[in-house]
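Collaborator request, handled under Task 6.
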Amino acid sequence: MKPLDLPLIGHSYPELMRTPRARWWNPLASLGMVVAGVVGLMVLLAVPMALVLFAQMDPEELWSSEAAFDLAFFSAPMVLLNNLMLAALIGVALLAILVAHPVKARFLHSVEGRVRWRWLLRAHLVLLPLFVVYVLGAWLLDGSRVLPRAEDWVWLLVMAFLLTPFQAAGEEYLFRGWVMLAIGTWIRRPVVTVAVSAVVSAVAFALAHGSLDPWILLDLGVFAVAAVILTWRTGGLEAAVALHVVNNVVIIVFGTLTGLDKESYVTDAAQGDPLSTLLSATVVTLATVLLLWQAKRAGVARTVPAAVGARP
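Structure tokens returned to the collaborator:
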């Protein structure tokens, strides 16, 4: 077996898989690996999810769709299993690159072939004040509603801090990183790759959340496009991961503390509205601009440096 390639010096993130040994079938094999991985995770967790659901339901509630829905989406054990499944997408994406592409899988992280931890931390710290103000402001505009907390709110809070970051990262590694690298194998021009990836990522990411409400779909689509742009312009997944992590953690923590936890998750029953979508899109746009500015100030590599790449 031949050693795996290094990406070419000067290539941007969408071009990382375009090496001399890249073949047209690599993305198709990669897609097969991803589908197999996702289906495998769903099958693996289907039994424990079903056991948790039935163990927590009273016999008289067994056929109540509303009771089953609440337990399926909002109980601590189900949130735990769901977070574990989504976090495992990091491994699915890395394995797909490792097996199906001729480039080292570590370049899924960034053009430097690693997670740039200092930049990842900086991105989190830069975004945190913006999203705290956003969530607090949206709550005030919505009438400062407070409901009784869930019985297992402490566990939900713990998982928000410990597991939600990995859940958000898993979605970014699959919907942004893997999608862009796979598509980039077929398309020579990075700008075209980014445009196609933005469409594919936005559609897949929005539909994966289950809601068909047009305002929810638009909201998720804007988020996905912003994450694609960040990945391209910063040369790695760190900025997109930070955007996703801070957004999710702040919203879930605030919702858990105020008893609005059911409104913190996007499910197939979620309903949006023009004002909320506009506000969310505005904040995501501001966050994107802020991160791009900070990446420039920090000197974050946007293309493969000579120290880690191969010469064309």
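The cover message to the collaborator said: "Residues 13-298 form one domain. Residues 62-68 have pLDDT under 50 and may be disordered. Please let us know whether this matches your experimental observations."
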